[in-house]
Design goal:
By secondary structure, this protein is α/β, with parallel strands linked by helices. The protein has 11 helices and 7 strands.
Length: about 270
């Protein structure tokens, strides 16, 4: 993907008094050199790595130009892909908010797909990359779909006895608001949400393989802490469908977990 960073490094070599950059011979030569010596070898290396790891499915390579996040989503929609796997550059939440990042843009544009983002310090067993698996649940349909997808992934490694943990966090804000009426209803609701998650795992053939926890506090913080303390390879959770504008100002649990959890792969399910 050719984006603004590459343009910034080479802009001094091009006469800016032209209307269209792609009509300048010098720019075309620089771009082609970049493709031949940096982009295409990288794509071939990725393709070779997948083949060496036993991937037998057809592997296609593509080069696009434009706004990187938008192009990733466009190509995924165009090709009918329902899963995107990507890394992250390590921007802090503040830098990600002010400067933007490819990951943030892809997450804000994603619909009807699952995005897997590798942690900067992710360490997992390549023979069994999804265990232990943390499944935060909040009772929403995206959350339930994340449990279904988690069950499907775990079934692929059923011989390894996958470890799964359902986690529901009662937001301390809700607890504070209900002090006058008690927290019994919140606890009951949390237990029902966990029971629904257990039922999904049971229907997926994973009865008895999952444990569960009910905690109270800041949801994203506790999810990330649980992932860190439990050495979870993968966190799979649903997105609540906030608009990009709302995500920018209010944040979201899934987005916050993504920034906080550096040692786990984070999968976010969008409906």
């Amino acid at each position: 993907m050719i984006g603004g960073g590459y343009l910034a490094r080479h802009i001094q070599n091009v006469d800016l008094r032209v209307t269209r950059m792609d009509q300048v011979d010098a720019w075309r030569r620089v771009r082609q050199h970049h493709l031949d010596h940096e982009i295409l070898p990288l794509l071939e290396e990725g393709k070779r790595s997948l083949q060496e790891k036993g991937v037998v499915a057809p592997i296609e390579t593509r080069v696009a130009k434009g706004k990187i996040g938008e192009e990733i989503i466009r190509l995924a929609d165009e090709g009918g892909y329902n899963t995107i796997v990507m890394g992250r550059r390590g921007l802090s939440p503040v830098k990600g908010l002010l400067l933007g990042s490819v990951t943030r843009q892809v997450l804000s544009l994603a619909q009807k797909m699952t995005i897997f983002v590798l942690g900067q310090e992710a360490v997992f067993n390549p023979e069994y990359p999804i265990s232990p698996l943390l499944l935060p649940v909040d009772g929403s349909e995206p959350s339930c779909e994340a449990v279904r997808q988690g069950a499907a992934l775990a079934r692929g490694f059923i011989n390894c006895q996958p470890q799964l943990m359902l986690l529901h966090v009662i937001d301390f804000v809700k607890v504070g608001a209900s002090l006058n009426t008690g927290t019994t209803l919140l606890i009951k609701e949390g237990e029902e949400i966990l029971a629904s998650g257990r039922q999904i795992l049971k229907e997926g053939g994973l009865e008895g393989l999952g444990a569960d926890k009910l905690l109270v506090g800041h949801p994203s913080r506790l999810i990330a802490e649980e992932a860190e303390e439990g050495h979870y390879a993968l966190i799979l959770m649903g997105a609540r469908g906030l608009s990009p504008l709302k995500q920018l100002f209010l944040g979201s649990v899934s987005s916050d977990v993504l920034h906080r959890a550096s040692r786990s792969i984070v999968g976010i399910v969008y409906l």
